[in-house]
What does this fold into?
Amino acid sequence: METLTRILSHELGPLGITVNAVGPTPISTRLIRNVPQEAIDRITERLAIKRAGTLEDVWNVVEFFLRRQNGFISGQVIYLGGA
It folds into this structure.
């Protein structure tokens, strides 16, 4: 995803399109419902902020990227939780 984000940023930048990505921590959704809690705990223990993420955490970053005044930011990946 990092490489794709950077490549698309360079390809689409001349058109005024920014490309960024969010690298979330585990978030309690149906996607991870079958992942053992021990595995989730091992992941979150390695983070600087030792907790699972929330949809609001992800949305805050997406909302930042969508603001018109941040139109000079492109090709970036923001990892949540201090990965």
